[in-house]
Design brief:
The chain is an alpha+beta fold. It has eight helices and 20 strands. Strands 10, 13, 16, 17, 18, 19 and 20 form a seven-stranded mixed β-sheet that branches. A five-stranded antiparallel β-sheet has the order 7-2-4-5-9. Strands 1-8-6-3 form a four-stranded antiparallel β-sheet, with no helix packed on it. Helix 6 crosses helix 7 and helix 6 crosses helix 8.
Length: 428
């Protein structure tokens, strides 16, 4: 008996996936629920398990190919007594989020329209024009459309649920003589060769995740007017609290008490005071988010992802510590779910763990700001007329100057700095 391995749907808006690599070869035995291939979608990378025990009889889709959901990827020749296949698509094992920039613009659901800073109620009806384009096309299709100035929202797709496919765009271009109705695509910038003939080099293709990171980063730089501001923070009080309570904290909560939960708690308090930094733009509307969903960047051996702590305003310091560790561990073991990398309203990235003093992080679209945490270390500090050894670190805020004024960003950072420097030990 042969059982099909199906391209699963990794979220409501996802209509296709790319086969990244096959983990089993034709003829090899597989166990039920054993990972046999890895796929990549707009929102997550995932290891797909075998729907039955047996032998991998045929691979139908080669590595690097992108196909629509429910496409047959391979077939399993089942053994006697092997478990029956799943009724539709295989269950999803070990998914891991794919970035953005951090968080990609397409990973966030359309925001509700705001009537004021504190009464932003979601409208009844459909989604925004930009969201409809995102859910009806792949990154490749959107790139081709941008290069040829094609309005995807005006096209009727032949894919599942009216999805616009690469073939649809190519057919449109063919009808137009290879160009869009509006005007020819803008000329590409001249690219110098990366190496000369005879040079000792090793070239390897970009991974799907790396391509998406590149796309998200350049898209964010094109979208937002990036400005950065830097504040020095005295963590001496935080360090004293952490040192005094770390053993009891570990015993009670099962996680280590690091600096990051203190920073996240202070960020939540600052966002409550300055809600514009927890907002997004939708067309000509500024959408204030009532929930504070903190994206926390996690560095992986194969890239970068931004899992999201949902409703961070409802969590105490221990809850933030647990959520951070849980998301980071499951990100590195490829066990995150698609919804756990969506809906972020503000992002925190921590290059300080690698020794960086500060940086200029790129905004995670469609958010308006991102915080970079620099390394925390003991330094000499002048206090009044004396020189003291203090635990110091830098914080960098990257913000969208289209909406956030420099004064507002600095007031947000001042609030954050004061909270950390006079941290209330009762919070721990």
């Amino acid at each position: 008996m042969k059982v099909d391995v199906i391209m699963p749907q990794m979220g409501e808006s996802i209509q296709e996936g790319t086969v990244v690599r096959w983990m089993k070869k034709v003829g090899e035995k597989v166990k039920r629920d054993e990972p046999i291939l890895e796929i990549s979608t707009d929102k997550v990378d995932a290891e797909i398990p075998s729907p039955a025990a047996g032998v991998l009889a045929e691979i139908k889709i080669a590595e690097g190919k992108t196909v629509e959901i429910r496409t047959v990827l391979a077939t399993i020749e089942t053994e006697a007594g092997a478990g029956a296949p799943a009724p539709d698509a295989p269950s999803i094992a070990k998914p891991v989020a794919a970035p953005p920039a951090m968080e990609p613009p397409r990973t966030v659901a359309p925001a509700p329209r705001a009537t004021s800073a504190f009464t932003a109620d979601a409208p009844r009806g459909g989604s925004s024009r930009e969201e409809r384009i995102r859910t009806r096309s792949s990154p490749l299709v959107r790139r081709i459309a941008r290069e040829n100035q094609i309005d995807l929202a005006a096209m009727s797709g032949t894919g599942i649920a009216g999805r616009v496919t690469k073939k649809d765009v190519q057919a449109y271009l063919d009808r137009q003589g290879g160009r869009a109705e509006i005007s020819p695509a803008p000329a590409r910038a001249l690219q110098m060769p990366a190496f000369k003939p005879g040079e000792r080099v090793r070239a390897e293709p970009l991974t799907v995740m790396r391509k998406k990171i590149a796309e998200h980063m350049t898209a964010s730089k094109r979208t937002s007017a990036h400005v950065h501001s830097f504040f020095e923070v005295d963590y001496t009080t935080v360090e004293r609290i952490r040192r005094e309570k770390k053993d009891l904290f570990l015993e009670r909560h099962g996680v280590k008490l690091t600096y990051l939960p203190f920073v996240l708690h202070a960020v939540v308090e600052a966002l409550k005071a300055w809600p514009v930094l927890n907002a997004s733009m939708e067309g000509e509307n500024l959408v204030y988010k009532k929930d504070i969903n903190l994206g926390v960047a996690v560095a992986l051996d194969w890239g970068l992802i931004v899992p999201v702590i949902k409703n961070a305003e409802e969590k105490n310091l221990a809850g933030l510590a647990k959520a951070t560790q849980d998301l980071a561990e499951r990100a590195r073991s490829k066990k995150l779910l698609p919804e756990e990398v969506q809906g972020g309203t503000f992002t925190v990235t921590n290059p300080g763990v690698f020794g960086s003093l500060f940086g200029t992080p790129i905004i995670n679209q469609p958010q308006l700001a991102i915080l970079g945490v620099g390394t925390i270390e003991k330094r000499l500090k002048v206090l009044e007329d004396a020189i003291a050894i203090r635990t110091m670190g830098y914080l960098a805020i990257g913000f969208d100057h289209r909406i956030v004024d420099g004064a507002v960003a600095d007031q947000f950072m001042s609030h954050l700095k004061k909270t950390l420097e006079a941290f209330d030990p009762k919070v721990v």
